[in-house]
């Protein structure tokens, strides 16, 4: 142990007290200080941002409400659950229409199929359709409902992102 300590102390003693940079850094620092900072470009989210936020809050509210409910297998609850699914699907379609879904039709052009964002939108849509079909078979399945609502929210986010990218390109 004593030998290791001696080696360590000798290595420390051999180190230089100061390290000098390879080149003088002050000119670059002065240029950075003197150059005015560029103001960040404000994102133009358009009038649909508030509506998208409201739709998101509505979806979260419904999930929270249903999370506190006790589900049973009676026919009346199933009918109410199916009616709620229909209502939620209509609200989602309205939110997409407000965000300009007409520009994001279900049939993609050849240029759009190359874009991973559009492919992601299409994947999320297909997943939501599959989950909705399962949810219509078992409308009292809370996990499926939460997954379906998450997929709808994700689709809104991706459409919003695609529209923002399109606006910045033009």
Q: Briefly, what is this?
A:
It comes from Paraferrimonas sedimenticola. The protein has 170 residues and is mainly alpha-helical.
Descriptive overview:
This protein is mainly α. The protein has one domain (48-169). The chain contains seven helices and no strands. The chain is elongated. This is Anti-sigma factor. It comes from Paraferrimonas sedimenticola.
Summary keywords:
170 residues, mainly alpha
Tell me the layout of helices and strands.
Elements: H1 2-14, H2 26-34, H3 48-68, H4 75-98, H5 110-114, H6 116-137, H7 142-169
Helix pairs in contact: 3-4, 3-7, 6-7
Separation of termini?
70 Å
Strand content: under 5%
Structural class of the secondary structure composition?
A: mainly alpha
Number of helices: 7
Question: Helix and strand string, N-terminal first?
Answer: HHHHHHH
| Global outline | elongated
Tally of separate domains: 1
Main beta sheet: strand number and arrangement? Answer: none
Helix coverage percent of residues? over 70%
Mean pLDDT: 75
Low-confidence stretches: 70-74
State Rg: 28 Å
Number of strands: 0
